Amino acid sequence: MRFKCIVKYDGTLFHGFQVQKDLRTVQAEIERVLLIINKKKTTIYASGRTDSGVHALAQVFHFDTDIKMSEANLKNAINSRLPKDIFVVSVERVSDDFHARFSAKAKEYHYLVETGEYDPLLKNYRFFYKYNNLDVLRMKEAALIFVGKHDFQSFTKNHILEDFEREIFSIEIEEKNSLLIFKFKADGFLHNMVRILAAMLIEVGRYKYSLEQIKYILGQKNRKLAPKILPSSGLYLYKVYY
Fold it and tell me: What is the pLDDT, as a whole number, of residue 71?
C-alpha cells in the first residue's frame, strides 16, 4: 500500500529535508518513526528537498508499507512519535503509480520580508529588511520579467545541471502592513532559485538594478551577475500541486 502524506515543519533546527550523515534532517526523523511503526526500514520520497533553515507548510512525501492501519490511525501513530517541530497534516492512501516528486505539476514557495521593526522572536521565520525605501510597484514590474519559461542559470547555485529551464507561472508580491509576501509558483525550482530571485527583486525595489539590467542578467546565464541571496529563514514551501 502506498500512502501520501502532507507534512509541515519548522526548519530552524534542521539541516534541510534530505537525509545527511550525522546531521538532523526532517527525512531522518520521519523515517525513524516509520521504522518503529513498520518494524522495518521505510524510505520516504518527497516532492523535493528544502535547505537548512527552510520551513514547510505543506511538504508532500509518500511511502509504501504492508501494515494494515487506517489513515487516521496512521497519522496519529506518526505524529505521536515525531518531535514537536514536525507535524503530519494528512495521510491518504493513493494508487501505486503516485509519486510525490514525479507526479507533481507545480510548486508554490512564499518568501517573507519584514520591513518594520526588528523582532527577535521572528528572526528565524522571516527576513528583516533594515531599510524603508522599497518601491514595491517597481518590484512587481520586475517580477513579470521572470514569469514564463526561461533559462534560470543566473539565479541558482547549482552549476552541474544540463537543464536550467523552468517555467514560472506567477510571481505575486502581497503587502500586509509592514510584511511583504513574495509568492512564487512554477513547474519546479532550481537550488536557491527563490531566494536569489527575491533578493534581486529587492535590489530593484532599492533602485540598485534597473528592469533592463534584470533582463540582461537573465539572458546572460551567469550566476556571478546575480550575487545576492536572502537567508533561508524567510522561505516556506507553501503548496505542491498535483
Answer: 97
Q: Residue 44 in contact with residue 101, Cβ under 8 Å?
A: no
Q: According to the CATH classification, is domain 106-241 in 3.30.70.660?
A: yes
Q: Regarding the domain delimited by 2-94, which CATH topology (the fold level of the hierarchy) does it fall under?
A: Alpha-Beta Plaits (3.30.70)
Task: Tell me which long-range contacts 94-98 makes (C-beta under 8 A, separation of at least 24).
Answer: 94/2, 94/3, 94/4, 94/62, 95/2, 96/2, 96/64, 98/2, 98/4, 98/62
Rounded to the nearest 10°, the torsion over CA 222, 224, 230, 232 is: 70
Q: What is the rounded distance in angstroms from the CA atom of residue 119 to the CA atom of residue 15?
A: 24
Radius of gyration of the chain (CA): 19
Contact 61, 240 (CB under 8 A): no
Task: Give residue 160's pLDDT.
Answer: 72
State the pLDDT at residue 103.
Answer: 98
Give the burial string for 108-121 (b: 16+ CB within 10 Å, else e).
bbbbbbbbeeeeee
Do residues 170 and 183 touch, judged by C-beta distance below 8 A? yes
**For residues 151-164, average pLDDT:** 86
Of 114, 242, 126, 236, give the one whose Cα is nearest residue 176: 114
DSSP string covering 179-194: EEEEEEEES---TTHH
| 135 noted as active-site residue | no
Instruction: Give the active site residue among 10, 22, 51, 97.
Output: 51
Q: Give span(s): CATH 3.30.70.660, the chain.
A: 106-241
Strand, coil or helix: 25: coil
